[in-house]
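Thread title: Can someone regenerate the structure for this chain?

I was given the following input by a collaborator and told the matching structure tokens would be attached. They weren't. Posting the sequence so someone can regenerate them.
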Amino acid sequence: MKLFIDCRMLGSGGIGTYLESLLPYFTKNNDCILLCSQNQAEKLLAYKDKSEILYTDIKTFSIKELLFFPKDLCKRINECDLYYSPYCNVPSGIRIPVFTTIHDIVFLDVPGLSSKTGTFARKFFYQNAVNRSKAVFTVSQFSADRIKQKLKPKNTPLVVTYNSVPEWFINDDGTDTNTKNTEGATDVSAPDSAPKDNSIIFVGNIKKHKGLSTLLEAFTICKKQGLDARLVIIGNAENFRSGDEETVIKLAELQDKDITFTGKISDSELKAFYKKARLLVQPSLYEGFGMPPMEALISGTNVILSDIKVFKEIYKDFPVTFFKTQDAQDLAQKITANFNVPAPSKASIPDKYSFQKTSDIITETFRRFI
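Best answer:
Regenerated them for you:
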């Protein structure tokens, strides 16, 4: 197949990581044209000999992309068998089959995350992707169900691909924390246990649906009960303080020595925090998939999760502990009970998700619709 892959989201958080992890599989067995901006060229150096790379300064979700996409780029797109986007942007002028991705619709489901104008714009782009796509990919059955409920696709199938740990996390420093199975899929299994400090970590953004307020309340309870622990928030303190007011108030009640903001950190530093921590706590109220728990598990760190529907779906067979969502007392009890529990073993972590499997699902869907 000849694929036109929109790579302009490379470097854009989880969506960029998702695409970056899939590109080796797409380009291995297909003739690909990759579209990116000039400042993303370095990320595609590995593909310059086997794929054609085109450049544009047109931003995703811009008026120019939506209504006035250049004719020369449209011509190149329409010479391919299909257009694929790792997100829900679809340029004008495309006549070949379109395939897009909606990872979640949190901005439609959780009030207050965006302005009315921002929410309307997101719904427009989601709906446009659903209407124009041969199939829409998403990363959990939960997200598929929410898309059906909110966007009501008529003839567009929703295909669940799931997500996985990115290659940089598995082996970015020459160490063998994981291996490959015979089909090339990542063997998602925990490394040998690393020396632990007394940290509990939270990895996520500052939005209210991440549930950090519940974790702060639970952490306060644990400290009052004598737990010798510190909380490490992987993020930036200044940005955090511009977030949810309730969480800011709870944060102010904690001693500075008990809580640390890392600020912006590198991938290798993130891996180090995972490996040293005794627990990762993911108190989310809403997720499309939720990667930090899997990253923690393969780093040899125990995980406590809110019992939201998507986590029960994704982590059903994994060695994790669930607590009642937004129940700080229950979370505090689970933190205390699990703080000194041995790290998860390799054998306890199922080989359930990989980008090899994800790419196989996507590629098979391409073949069914072109």
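The longest helix spans residues 13-29.
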